[in-house]
Amino acid sequence: MLIVITPFEILNEQHQQCLLHRASFIDGVILRTPMSDPALKLWIQMLLNQGFPKHKLIIHTRVALAQEFDIKRIHFREYDIPAHFNTKAWQVSMSVHSPKAIRYALDKGAIWGLYGHLFQTESKHGLRPRTKAEVRHVLAQSLPLVAVGGINATTIVNVSHQFIGIAMIRGAFNQKVSHVKQVRSIWMKGGGQL
């Protein structure tokens, strides 16, 4: 599985074009942005009007917006799943950074977790990546995990195939389509040792 995550910025036509050029080989996109609900609603409608598959959209946190578009995939920040949220009607994922967060996600009905960062990345500037011991420990838990953080054509060979997939932010939006396809191809052929 390859998930892309939008950079945390105002999304525009360039982001739409990037997604449209990657739509055939990505499994989903988490729409994580500081945009207002009305602005994001308009942006999503424009993306859908250009042919982006609705089933590949993953709304970040905004339950009402997901309901309005009848989008069933929703992602939450760590420990941010609403108390009375009916996860049975959704495909819920959550960012997780510890075994405790993984247990919370499982209790809330999440079907997978986003775990990282595995490698140095501008998104987490100055923060150390997860250690091999930390990665092994979370992979021993029962929630399927998607790896994120500094994943590119060089680092992908070091991502354990105990992860059910990988996620990319800047690597997906700031690199050529051929680079993203290469990362996906390497991932699909077999993982690494981390």
Separation of the first and last Cα atoms = 18 Å
Structural class: alpha/beta
Largest sheet: 8 strands, parallel, barrel
Instruction: Note poorly predicted spans.
Output: none
**CATH homologous superfamily, by name?**
Aldolase class I
**C-alpha-based Rg, rounded:** 16 Å
Spatial shape: globular
Structurally, the number of domains stands at 1
Strand order of the largest sheet: 1-2-3-4-5-6-7-8
Number of strands: 8
According to CATH, the fold-level topology is TIM Barrel
Give the helix tally.
Answer: 7
Question: Could you characterize the architecture of this molecule?
Answer:
The structure is a single chain. The protein has 194 residues and is α/β, with parallel strands linked by helices. The protein has a single domain (2-190), classed as Aldolase class I (TIM Barrel), CATH 3.20.20. The chain has helices at residues 13-22, 37-49, 63-69, 99-108, 132-139, 170-173, 177-189, and strands at residues 2-5, 28-31, 57-60, 73-76, 91-96, 112-116, 145-148, 165-168. The radius of gyration is 16 Å and the shape is globular. Keywords: Thiamine biosynthesis. GO terms for molecular function: thiamine-phosphate diphosphorylase activity.
Summarize the structure.
With 194 residues, this protein is an alpha/beta fold. It has 7 helices and 8 strands. It has helices spanning 13-22, 37-49, 63-69, 99-108, 132-139, 170-173, 177-189; strands spanning 2-5, 28-31, 57-60, 73-76, 91-96, 112-116, 145-148, 165-168.
